[in-house]
């Protein structure tokens, strides 16, 4: 919200405070100030000039030599290239020495041999944006009114003698999205009561609005208030200079007197209005309703908008003529030929306007105010003011009466709060009179006859509803700097990590020690990526109103986000990428609005595990390298004996022959495997290996205590066994049989050879294991080891149909 200090001075006495100091006061009371602009500081030598003559310069297709009177019968020669300059005009002249906002410094010069002693300025050259310059001055200089005084300063005529305070309005303070709202706020800060001019409508009693128009609404929830006035016998003229000036300096382009008044009233009251060309309406009935399926509307910007039942529309003769609260229609907008105006002022349901503006990508000053809320007490007052102003500027007449639908009435709210509650919350020692004075500065009535304080809140502050809101108002007006700073008096409790938090921290250290780097990816992603790599059957949790198509659903797996990070790094010539992430995934619950949040550990690795050097060749990450990292992590957790890796083809995103389900206590807790080659090719990745594990299950489980044992005193012995089995037999199956049948002295099993080739029958494989036997309390006897070893070989033959070699 760009606030004109001069405009604000129409309500308050600001003669004793500088704009910069006022901005500081506003910031200290809770509304952030983004910027303070003082145009007059650099534009002192701008004067009003009268063009006495304008002649084309020979050999130039656009330059003209002008003679300009700049006051006191003094005329100077100025070369001007504007196509609309001509004799008799009052113009803005920058004298030598002026530095324009674009950095150009004006000085005496010669152009085409003609002396130029200044510059006739366009609004763009004075810092105005193209979007706010009136159409007639867009491609040329700005023409001042004929009564502008020659030789006087030009700044007041274009509003650049003013100061502008840029407010960053938060949604809870939408009352400050109007000049009157800011007037109340600044009045409270300076302990002044703002004075607003009274508006009297001089309407034509010979006719009534009912003879022109009737209004109705389909749903009173969507449109609690809808009002309309008629202004007849109108001439649509150019707005006076004061109105153009106010609009341009807050960023709105002047169009004509009717449109400019609606924008002006919106800025003053915060109440959006819309003007219809009455003669362009097909009948005398206006109805507000939801759009029908397959309806469309061409809006003022010339674009055809496809509507849906979430959109609220103004209709006439059954057809949409405007998007309620957002933008008018092209067929009924006011033109220079308009003679009768139907002027609308309404209150629309904020959520409906928000959805319409977002779905159609059509945000406007009007829609932003409807979205944040309106002062219901000024809906008709703003309508009356606008109607009378339009009539005055266009020599028209306001028709008597207001066509209306009004299902709610503006009401004051009462909030009761104890003085002790205020002081206890803020740590202050205010007395009742001080609090009452603060409320009076805000324009709130108070009752103190009973012990608690009862505060009456007018409709213009619809953000105040509960005790906390009153406490906030007291705090900011009393002064945040005056609130005492104290340390908490509660007993201090030493903080420590829970066992689960400790394991998460140790997991981070372990993964980084294993050569992986931590990555953090967005929890929100696309619907497709949200469900990828997940075995959960339900659909992902979706946002009702996502900010973008890339962030519309909560992830059900961490791997999609990690793959995006891997792809990003590989595309930037990072050959080796190894990421891990600890984060939450989200699973929808049918009988609960909130999803289940589950902590997962995931990793993605590609490229060389060991880069080539003078000692060894390059070695890329493979399935077993990644599996080894996880096995070491399981050892750290103390759950290695109950972990198994079972081949699976249930993950369509992973390689069907290089993927295993990670099981713990015969329950699936994760997956490890190679990214499917087709997906890797789509992402321009080489072999990439992934894993993802449900950490919550593992970290919440009871684990074996890690016990450190001394070096063994007694020697052990080893046996080797080689055998041929079906190629479908898993290493885990072999280990299981050996551990169950190897005897109590078997301490370690190690696979040292795996072979398939010409000497082995097709469909078979040869496996060789080294077995370590050891007695912790005595030296092992040969016959004890031999007996256990033979029993183990027998078990291999019986359980796995092994052929001992």
TrEMBL record:
Organism of origin:
Alkalibacterium kapii
InterPro entries, sorted = aa-tRNA-synth_II/BPL/LPL, B3/B4_tRNA-bd, DNA-bd_dom_put_sf, Fdx_antiC-bd, Fdx_antiC-bd_sf, NA-bd_OB-fold, Phe-tRNA-ligase_IIc_bsu, Phe-tRNA-ligase_IIc_bsu_bact
For activity, the cofactor(s) needed are:
Mg(2+)
Q: What gene, per UniProt, encodes this protein?
A: pheT3
- Cite the PANTHER family for this sequence: PHENYLALANINE--TRNA LIGASE BETA SUBUNIT (PTHR10947:SF0), PHENYLALANYL-TRNA SYNTHETASE BETA CHAIN AND LEUCINE-RICH REPEAT-CONTAINING PROTEIN 47 (PTHR10947)
Q: From the UniProt record, list the reaction(s) this protein catalyses.
A: tRNA(Phe) + L-phenylalanine + ATP = L-phenylalanyl-tRNA(Phe) + AMP + diphosphate + H(+)
Family indicated by similarity: Belongs to the phenylalanyl-tRNA synthetase beta subunit family. Type 1 subfamily.
Please name the top-level EC class of this enzyme.
Answer: ligase
Mind telling me which HAMAP family this protein's record contains? Phe_tRNA_synth_beta1 (MF_00283)
Origin superkingdom: Bacteria
Note the subunit structure: Tetramer of two alpha and two beta subunits.
Q: What residue stretches are annotated with the B5 domain? A: 410-485
Designated name of the protein: Phenylalanine--tRNA ligase beta subunit
TRNA-binding domain: which residues? 40-155
Q: What is its main location?
A: cytoplasm
Protein localization = Cytoplasm
Which GO molecular function entries does the Swiss-Prot or TrEMBL record give?
ATP binding; catalytic activity, acting on a protein; magnesium ion binding; phenylalanine-tRNA ligase activity; transferase activity; tRNA binding
Among the Pfam families in the record, one is: B3_4
Gene Ontology biological process terms, A to Z: phenylalanyl-tRNA aminoacylation
